[in-house]
Specification:
The structure holds two protein chains of two kinds. By secondary structure, chain A is mainly alpha-helical. Chain A contains twelve helices and no strands. In chain B, the strands form five sheets. In chain B, strands 1, 2, 3, 6, 13 and 14 form a six-stranded mixed beta sheet that branches. A four-stranded mixed beta sheet of chain B has the order 8-9-7-10. Classes of the chains: A mainly alpha, B alpha/beta.
Chain lengths: 283, 702
């Protein structure tokens, strides 16, 4: 039977939650305000509520065309989508099998392998951009979506392996043993039994890989040489330069860039909390 | 069909540029006209200005660059040494001489000049009738503006490019004619003192003036005079007028600004017709379009404009001094900028500022370490590889292990794809990058130096350990940064998770959804917003603090003037960015702790704290630890927040290791080897940390 909280406790808890939520949303509301206000100014007052509402900034950003008059924004949105979805797919296919092997089988080198995945998280990105550029150039993957997807997907592998392994650890082995007795191969057990059970963790890692690709701009700007192959974050950087910042356009672009991620976050929320549980508790 | 398209593609001339707005439009028109006349296709690619020069310098040497690119002349020296550009033949009489001078190096001309730009004295014609001709007059008029409730004068005070007018009027210069810089002169001190007087003592200028802020103040009619160039006037919503910069009353000499010349550069092996297009853009029709549509001050002498703005520009060009194209000027600028900020804030006197600028310049332009013999290294690396292989072979001699490997043979197939991808795309680039740490680079020259970079860093050879440039100092800051961040992330995340799991909390899923918003919005966006909110005069943070302290007006705190507050600004931003992840992880972990345990404890009379401490926490800890370790590694390398919020201010003291490495690579004289050595040391520190963390916890966490 649940204990009944006292009234002050209830009030205090709700006040605390509301305050923290307001603090968390305040800067974001500002982005919204600048996006919907006319002009390119940085909002300088306290209130995050726009005084005049217009869709001009969105119209400008969405309506960008190139010198031949083709619809640039649409092209770049498509690039972002294709790259991010492909990154999740490639990233997940690389990491699920690895995570499963690391979770289930005690082969020699397993410990070292897991250590190695963590260690790669410690590589500082600063030194890697130029070697990556040379490498992709060597393979002829420069300025191609494939090259960027491969780079992003591998970047997301360590976190995915870590999360997935933690989750696989919590799935009882008994189910798989039963299936093996019934004559199922390892691959069948993995795809038919384990993966469906791991849906929450797959959702979280998939989303993470998606975000890695969706938000990245330094590599995208270095590796892609053409407006038509730019992703949206690179385009956003265009609005912020040394001489002048087009805050209105930048904010409108920021809203557009954030919306899909936000939608995915909310859609996958249910899985989220569960998917990130890194084992240790349930096991 | 496809081959036809490709064929048409091949004949195209690709042009890179960083123009926006009217200038971009003019360029497009000119390209269109040229295509119609010549039959050559022209493909224009706008590159974000932030990444422009690094992109040029990576792409062109490897043959992935454009045929032509448009840029200002100040990197000319670097580009010729890198062999990135071809000399071009200019019309001998068509251009204003100063533009041709600026593009001339070693007796050759390196680009078709397009337009020249320099700063001028811009003013609001609605408020000011006659622009002043001396600085005394300027200060007087500026005070009048202040009395009328607006700022008198705004310019990007901490940037040497904008400071150049004062510098030259006091007889100082960034680089000496024979090479090198002398910044610790009385002339430099006097120029800095004058800049400080205008920027802060007189009370006529806004704080922390960035280009974007000044533009906005001007559009809102809140500033009378602006020192800036044609790029500033282009998109203004208020009327704006221009005059040449005034004479500095103290010395009687004119404020001579730097003149930059924008030109079209041709890359070696450029497509047919490239040189024709460059010439077309520079003179005649192309220049006319750029003048009319793009409002550029074109270098083509045949095109005169009587627009007042352009007349002022032409007049200013007479006193202006071409910006030096020696790559060393970047070091002098970096050193001057640092001192200017300190002097304007009052943390250094002008004399100290000049001395410190010289000191910093000497550090930035210090000679490369002596060359080392690479042969012992090659042998060493070969021995290491052999040793490793030998070790593996030795291990495999054990029949038991061999049997295990054989038995698990197929298991390796499961990690093969991930392992292979990681080795090629993560490990290989890192190892290559790390190998660079054995070399030193300065101004296009590479030298093998062995461990010299590491020794320089570890022993703080070039400056004292207490200097904000020393590795130990930055490491200390980084550890403090990581620790405080992780503590805040975990405690806030844990606190919220504990509150949000109570079944009696209303709208739980709504709060949970809203609280992860900071995580969902890309951090380079929100970091920029936070930077704006921490502005001393216009930021929301000071306004809110003023409101909370019941001052009735914003408090006046320059967040980036001292270490403590600048560090706090970074911290607030990163805490805001990072707590949702910990909250979600904790919620997940909490969900799997059976509530009955805690309730049983509380029914038995245990306090809330007791039941948390002895029931919940022990169950929670193992689930949180991996997240904490991973989170601390991420925070340790959190480049975006430091770079975008405090940018290392003041005096690069809030820099963390990763941003410090970035500075050495990209803004302090391209010391790639030195930066790579930093990166290797970062990696080493993290490796030690994760080992220690594992041992501390007493079990294998990750």
């Amino acid at each position: 039977m649940a204990r009944r909280p006292s009234t002050p406790q209830v009030v205090f808890t709700h006040v605390a939650i509301v305050l923290v939520t307001l603090a968390a949303l305040y800067p974001v509301l500002w982005v919204l305000k600048m996006a919907f206000s006319p002009g390119q100014a940085f909002s300088m007052d306290l209130s995050p509520i726009p005084t005049a509402v217009t869709l001009d900034n969105f119209r400008d950003v969405v309506g960008t065309t190139d010198s031949q008059g083709s619809w640039l924004f649409g092209r770049q949105l498509l690039n972002s989508l294709v790259i991010s979805v492909a990154t999740s797919v490639v990233g997940l296919s690389l990491s699920t099998t690895a995570a499963y092997a690391l979770s289930r089988w005690n082969f020699p080198g397993r410990e070292q392998g897991m250590g190695a995945f963590l260690v790669t998280q410690m590589f500082p990105g600063v030194v890697m951009a130029i070697p990556l550029y040379l490498l992709l150039d060597l393979f002829g993957l420069l300025d191609s979506l494939t090259g960027l997807v491969l780079v992003y997907a591998t970047t997301s592998v360590p976190f995915s392996v870590w999360t997935l392994k933690g989750y696989f650890d919590t799935i009882p082995v008994a189910l798989e043993e039963a299936a093996t007795i019934d004559g199922a191969s390892r691959w069948m057990t993995f795809t038919q039994i384990v993966l469906p059970l791991a849906r929450p963790a797959l959702a979280v890692t998939g989303l993470f890989s998606f975000m890695t690709a969706w938000n990245e701009f330094i590599l995208a700007a270095t590796l892609m040489g053409d407006q038509r192959s730019f992703t949206l974050p690179v385009v956003l950087q265009h609005y912020v330069n040394d001489h002048q910042t087009e805050w209105g356009h930048f904010a409108a672009g920021a809203v557009l860039v954030s919306l899909p991620v936000m939608a995915l976050f909310f859609a996958l929320q249910r899985h989220f909390v569960e998917g990130l549980t890194a084992g240790g508790v349930k096991g | 069909m496809i081959s036809l398209v490709l064929g048409a593609y091949a004949a195209e001339i690709t042009v890179w540029h960083a123009y926006r707005g009217a200038e971009e439009e003019a360029l497009e028109q000119a390209a269109h006209q040229f295509s119609e006349q010549s039959g050559h296709g022209v493909r224009l690619v706008g590159v974000p200005s932030g990444a422009y020069s690094s992109k040029l310098e990576t792409a062109i040497p490897r043959g992935n660059g454009p045929d032509l690119f448009i840029a200002s002349h100040d990197n000319l020296g670097k580009w010729t040494t890198m062999g990135m550009i071809e000399p071009l033949v200019l019309s001998p009489t068509g251009h204003i001489p100063v533009a041709v001078d600026a593009l001339t190096l070693d007796g050759k001309t390196w680009a078709q000049p397009l337009a020249y730009k320099s700063v001028m004295l811009l003013y609001d014609p609605a408020r000011i009738d006659t622009p002043p001709t001396t600085t005394d007059g300027l200060i007087e008029l500026a005070h009048q503006q202040v009395e009328e409730g607006r700022y008198g004068l705004a310019w990007q005070a901490s940037e040497p490019y904008f400071h150049a007018g004062f510098m030259h009027a006091f007889g100082a210069r960034a680089l000496e004619p024979g090479g090198g810089a002398r910044l610790d002169t009385p002339e430099h001190a006097a120029a800095m003192a004058f800049s400080k007087r205008l920027a802060s003592d007189e009370g006529i200028a806004p704080a922390q003036p960035t280009g974007a802020l000044i533009a906005q103040l001007y559009d809102e009619g809140r500033v009378g005079f602006v020192i800036s160039g044609p790029w500033f006037t282009a998109d203004r919503s208020r009327a704006i007028a221009a005059a040449p910069l005034p004479i500095v009353s103290e010395t009687g000499r004119p404020m001579a600004p730097y003149l930059t010349v924008e030109g079209v550069f041709e890359v070696p092996g450029a497509a047919d017709g490239s040189a024709d297009f460059a010439r077309y853009l520079a003179l005649g029709e192309g220049a006319a379009v750029r003048s009319e549509v793009g409002q550029q001050a074109v270098s083509d002498l045949a095109i005169q404009s009587d627009a007042p703005m352009r007349v002022a520009m032409a007049e200013q060009a007479r006193t202006a001094i071409p910006m030096p194209s020696d790559p060393d000027v970047a070091n002098a600028f970096e050193a001057l900028a640092r001192s200017l900020r300190a002097v304007q804030r009052g943390t250094l006197t002008p004399e100290q500022g000049a001395k410190s600028a010289q000191n910093y310049y000497d550090i930035l332009s210090r000679p490369l370490p002596p060359a080392a013999d690479p042969r012992p290294w090659l042998v060493g690396v070969a021995l290491l590889v052999l040793g490793f292989l030998g070790w593996v072979g030795f291990q495999l001699r054990e029949p038991e292990l061999r049997a295990r490997v054989r038995r698990h043979g197929r298991d390796y197939l499961w990690i093969l794809p991930a392992g292979l991808a990681m080795s090629v795309l993560v490990v290989l680039p890192f190892v290559t990058g790390a190998a660079v740490s054995l070399f030193a680079h300065k101004g296009g020259e590479w030298r093998f130096v062995g461990l010299a970079n590491f020794l320089d860093i570890a022993l703080a050879r070039d400056w004292p350990v207490t200097s904000s440039l020393s590795f130990v100092f930055t490491l200390g800051v980084t550890i403090l940064w990581t620790t405080v961040n992780v503590i805040l992330h975990v405690s806030i995340g844990l606190g919220l998770a504990l509150l949000l799991r109570e079944p009696w909390v209303r709208l739980r899923s709504v709060w949970r959804a809203l609280l992860i918003v900071p995580w969902a919005v890309p951090n380079y966006i929100t970091a920029l917003i936070w930077k704006g909110m921490f502005h001393a005069q216009f930021g929301a943070v000071n306004a809110i603090l003023g409101f909370l302290l019941m001052r009735g007006e914003p408090i006046e705190l320059d967040w980036f003037a001292q270490f403590s507050t600048a560090f706090c600004a970074n911290l607030v931003t990163n805490t805001w960015l990072g707590f949702p992840f910990m909250m979600v992880v904790t919620l997940g972990a909490l969900q799997s702790i059976p509530r009955d345990l805690e309730e049983a404890a509380e029914v038995d009379g245990a306090s809330w704290w007791f039941s948390f401490r002895y029931v919940t926490w022990p169950l929670l800890k193992p689930a949180l630890l991996p997240a904490v370790i991973l989170g601390s590694v991420w925070t340790f390398n959190m480049f975006n927040v430091i770079y975008l919020v405090s940018a290392g201010e003041p005096n690069s003291s809030t820099e963390i290791l990763i941003s410090e490495a970035y500075r050495w690579a990209f803004s302090r004289g391209n010391r790639y080897g030195y930066a790579a050595a930093y990166a290797v040391m970062i990696f080493g520190v993290l490796l030690v940390y994760s080992r220690a963390a594992n041992r501390l916890v007493g079990e294998k966490v990750i």
